[in-house]
DNA-binding transcriptional ArsR family regulator (Hansschlegelia beijingensis), 226 residues
Amino acid sequence: MVDDRHTNLDEVFHALADTTRRAMIARLASGEHTVGELARPFEMSLNAAVKHVKVLERAGLLRRRVQGRAHFCSLDARPLKEAAAFVRAYEGFWSDRLDALDSLLRQTSRPES
Amino acid sequence: MVDDRHTNLDEVFHALADTTRRAMIARLASGEHTVGELARPFEMSLNAAVKHVKVLERAGLLRRRVQGRAHFCSLDARPLKEAAAFVRAYEGFWSDRLDALDSLLRQTSRPES
DNA sequence: CCGATCGTCAACCATCCGGTTTATAATGCG
DNA sequence: CGCATTATAAACCGGATGGTTGACGATCGG
């Protein structure tokens, strides 16, 4: 079964909680890339980048197609669906009221600065 | 300025990468709760729960209204918007093709087991 | 004032994280 | 074959994380 269907949200969000890994995801959105290609843009050792790749892989966000010595990585966004479901459930919650409160506060009181 | 407007995605996603904290968020979606109320459902010390609250607060997802000795916490979902924007950008990416590939593989080749 | 309650702070601890360096395995190429 | 390339593995390190316990501060209620 290729479809993971347990989608550990902890792991998915953890994978997203790093700028390097989010950049890798963005890169993968443009198509397959080898591990080396994924690593190149970053100022870190290949080994460090490999660890990031593995974090993405563990989260189910990255799949690997080994061909010879090259490992071609591609994005699998399916785990993102559950993450998106969670975020969407609360995105926008109270925002309007808080924004209104902000404007109100900025209008009435004019504090330091 | 109440509006943070730098919304550290690292911190936001990190805050989301923990079951306890996601549960707290869900709880907060039902309205204001004190720190103690947020902590009660979990099998951990109050102090441990307080740390989770602080992680949420640092990520800008939780605001605090102190009244007497009670600290009333409320959800601020605004940082989630940027997180949602990222997730949405890649959610669904390649999914259709991968799903199609899955079915195809399961159909044509009938591998081990 | 006294005691209970709510919450914070600080110290401590084990584990994890993100990076390094070094070594090694597997493949492609001349 | 011999060597460069690609990627992994393992050991190590400093700092963050997630939990504990214990002590403290502030507030409410009697």
